[in-house]
Write a structure and sequence with these properties.
Length: about 280
């Protein structure tokens, strides 16, 4: 009886043993699916974190743009303030160079050539006048009738100078250029060269400014605008990034016009440049 019963139970036993691997495989497959779902859930959290980071970066970028705009506005205000201070300083130097208190330099020669005409005196500048309003008519040497013959020249010069006083620097530059083309050797030519250079300098056209100041110094080395032109040449060179040339020119101002206001200004700027290089 036992062999017969064993033979009957053997197929059932074999069937159960065959089903065990299938169940194990099914369990393993389910574990893989659960693991995949967990990975996907983790990726979703990572995506959320990434989106949060992008949102924060966008907010930071917007804040930086606002800061940049504010700094640009402040920079423009500083530029305008620097221009105003520069013109104020230029006016003070101009008044001193015109005989309003100390002159351009000890021992510097008066404008243009020989002895002054009898009775010819420069009009004194108005007290407290703004930068470009203290301009005094140039002293005429030699022919006393030269000033009387410069009626049209004086009118043309006045138009250009008025544009400069109003702060219309581009118009002033064009007008002074036209004036110099019409009156290249006129009585007001040295002054026109100086203010043409000034018009370019204030608008940061440093190379063109330097060219005008050099022309003035070359053609009218003893004119009352020469000290200021030499100072401005040094400043223009510094604006061009020619630091060594600028230092040489400023040192020349100090040596050539000792004790003058332009020399003191040159010394201050030279010191500032040297301190900046040390830093």
């Amino acid at each position: 009886m036992r062999p017969i019963r064993f033979r009957l139970l053997l197929p059932a036993l074999l069937l159960s043993l065959g089903a065990a691997p299938a169940a194990f495989a099914q369990k393993a497959s389910l574990a893989d699916r659960v693991a995949a779902l967990e990975v996907r859930a983790n990726n979703t959290q990572a995506n959320t974190d990434l989106l949060n980071q992008i949102t924060q970066l966008r907010q930071d970028l917007a804040s930086l743009r606002g800061t940049v705009e504010q700094l640009q506005n402040e920079n423009e205000q500083l530029k305008q303030r620097a221009r105003d201070q520069y013109l104020d300083l230029d006016g003070r130097i101009g008044r001193l160079e015109s005989g309003g208190g100390g002159g351009a330099a000890a021992g510097a020669q008066p404008p243009v050539s020989a002895a002054p005409a009898a009775g010819a005196k420069a009009a004194p500048p108005a007290a407290g006048a703004p930068a470009a309003t203290a301009e005094a008519p140039p002293a005429v040497h030699g022919d006393a009738g030269a000033m009387a013959q410069a009626g049209d020249e004086r009118t043309a010069y006045g138009v250009a100078f008025d544009a400069l006083k109003k702060g219309d620097y581009a118009d002033a530059a064009n007008l002074f250029t036209s004036f110099l083309q019409l009156y290249p050797s006129g009585v007001y030519a040295p002054n026109a060269l100086y203010w043409l250079g000034e018009s370019y300098y204030v608008t940061q056209n440093y190379q063109m400014a330097a060219d005008q100041f050099r022309a003035l110094l070359s053609r009218y080395p003893t004119h009352d605008k020469a000290p200021g032109a030499l100072l401005k040449l040094g400043l223009a060179q510094y604006g061009l990034g020619k630091v060594n040339d600028a230092q040489t020119t400023l040192q020349q101002v100090i040596q050539q016009y000792p004790g003058s206001d332009v020399a003191r200004t040159a010394d201050d700027r030279l010191h500032s440049i040297q301190v900046g290089q040390i830093r």
